[in-house]
Amino acid sequence: MPYSNDIIEELNVLALFNLETDLEGIKVHSSAGEAKVAAAERLYSKGLTSQVDGGYLTSLGRTAAEHAQGLLQILK
């Protein structure tokens, strides 16, 4: 099953997180675009982030971000 545009956008948001520290989150502003805002909302509803507009990664979110960023490194 290929990645949907929604999943790709969620992966792009997960790639924004700095995995070097748990003290740094992100904020997805409305100016980021409809697709990115919707992706941030979906990540929150899936329990991967602490806030609907980004916030911090949950423990599950950190695992997802590690895998997403790892895959990105492999594919680059």
Model description:
- This protein has one domain (5-75).
- It is built from three helices and three strands, in the order H-E-H-E-E-H.
- It has helices spanning 5-14, 34-45, 59-75; strands spanning 26-27, 49-51, 54-57.
- The radius of gyration is 12 Å and the shape is globular.
- The longest helix has 17 residues, at 59-75.
- The protein has a three-stranded antiparallel sheet with strand order 1-3-2.
- It is mostly helical and 76 residues long.
How do you describe this structure in short?
The chain has 76 residues and is mainly alpha-helical. Helices cover 51% and strands 12% of the residues.
Write the layout of secondary structure elements.
Elements: H1 5-14, E1 26-27, H2 34-45, E2 49-51, E3 54-57, H3 59-75
Antiparallel strand pairs: 1-3, 2-3
